[in-house]
Amino acid sequence: MVLTTQGVKNITCPDGKVQIKRSDGNNLFLLVKKGGSKLWRLRFRHAGKYQEMALGKYPSISLSEARKLAEEARASLIHGINPMDERRERKRTKTTSKDKLFGTIALKWWEQQKDSWSEDHAARIKRWLLVDSKYISNLHIEDIDAGHITELMLAIEAAGALKKAPNILAVINRVFGYALAHRLTRSNPAQGLPLGDILKPLPKVKHRAAIVKADELAQLIKDIDTTQSGNYCTVEALKLIPRVFLRPIEIRNLKWEYIDFDDLLIRIPAAEMKRDREHLIPMSKQVAQHLREVKAVTGYSKLVFPNQRDSSKPMSKNVLTNRLRDLGYPADVMSAHGFRSTASTILHEKGWDHDVIEVQLAHLTGTATSRAYNRSMYLTERKRLMQEWANYLDELSDMD
Question: What's the burial of 95, exposed, middle or buried (CB within 10 Å: 0-12/13-18/19+)?
């Protein structure tokens, strides 16, 4: 008679007996001991000899799990494999091969790739692998399935870091690609995982407030350029951002090594850009002069605008927005990110080519092939655009 879930739960060893056996059929049985222990056992015959295999202890191993383990053992027997030998080998491999843990393999992949990234981006990837993905870091890579990765993605969502989930999944996918290439695993459960069906949709992008009228922009630029109260780096960063079309995070993380005063270019590596593509920003004469003056003050740091308390770190996240508020521009009037929309709107009105503007804003344009092979797309036109835009802002600032 087969066992039931409730029967397994209720069964006890009668007084006067040391242990009893209760069969579930097909040689799977439960060994119930006097002390209350309940142990799953499978009796089988291999190479002409009967053997007994321990499948685990109830309730850690449920009835359904015991049946599954027994079925897997029988499948091995059909192929002439002793399931006990197979399990011992599997345990030996796992305990002696730490190099097959996901975290170990991920670090090997990271070590191989890190020189192609900026220092900050390499640290970010490492954190994604060892901190954000700690749920799978200590798992044997061949034991990880789509369910484990799904649970990891849901945990990231629950932690309020939904935006990171696609990036972390992409990195995990690359680690599995590395493991496949080195024959450390036979499958990639991260490939093709339908993230859109697992997680909630990302919130719709909110359009940042931006000033687009010439007279209002003129007053804004005057306020930014002439009001000196506040932290030096914050004041100077807010002067720069309207003139280079960069995002606030790109301004905050701007490094002196990116600034080429000889060629009048700012070269931001792919790892620092939203689209993971190197971006070139032609410097107008005004921007170049401004940055030379800033370097005389902050050149001691690798960052153009270092944190006031720790020069190895960038300015804090909201300083540019807070300065706009101090200047009298509330959130529904102007945002630090809004300078990009301001430039795009006015330059389109002035008749500048749409693609030239989009490339300067680091938006995707053209075919994938053209983007990959032409990093300096429209560079001549963009140099002229950036100089004329700087001149235009100077004219606005000089307006009475």
Answer: exposed
Q: Is the pTM of this model over 0.70?
A: no
Nearest-CA neighbor of 355 among 338, 373, 372, 379?
379
Q: Side chain identity at 329, as an amino acid letter? A: Y
Q: What is the mean pLDDT of residues 296-316?
A: 92
3-state secondary structure of 15: coil
- How far is it, in rounded angstroms, from Cα 199 to Cα 165? 9
| CB-based contact 94:134 (threshold 8 Å) | no
Amino acid at 97: S
Write down all domains in the chain, each with its CATH number in brackets.
Answer: 5-96 (3.30.160.390), 99-198 (1.10.150.130), 214-398 (1.10.443.10)
Query: What 8-state DSSP symbol labels residue 273?
Result: S
Q: Crossing angle of helices 146-158/165-181, nearest 10°?
A: 150
Q: Where are the beta strands (DSSP E) in 255-328?
A: 259-260, 265-268, 279-282
Residues 63 and 9: their CA atoms lie apart, in Å, by 10
Q: What is the rounded distance in angstroms from the CA atom of residue 171 to the CA atom of residue 274?
A: 16
Q: What is the pLDDT of residues 173-212, one digit of tens each?
A: 999 999 999 888 888 999 888 888 888 886 655 556 788 8
Instruction: Return the structure tokens found at 286.
Output: 């005004």
Q: Measured between alpha carbons, how far is 176 from 187 in angstroms, rounded to an integer?
A: 8
Q: State the Cα–Cα distance between residues 68 and 62, nearest whole angstrom.
A: 10
> Rounded to whole angstroms, how far apart are CA atoms 354 and 169?
34
Sheet of 259-260, strand order: 259-260, 265-268, 279-282
| Residue 300 backbone zone (phi > 0: left; psi -120 to 50: alpha; other: beta) | alpha
Cα separation, 188 vs 178, in Å, equals: 10
Tokens of 268: 């931001």
Burial class (CB in 10 A: 0-12, 13-18, 19+), 268: buried
Strand, coil or helix: what is 189?
Answer: coil
Q: Are strands 279-282 and 265-268 parallel, antiparallel or unpaired?
A: antiparallel
Distance CA 251, CA 342 (A): 17
Give dist(CA 47, CA 38) in Å, integer. Answer: 29
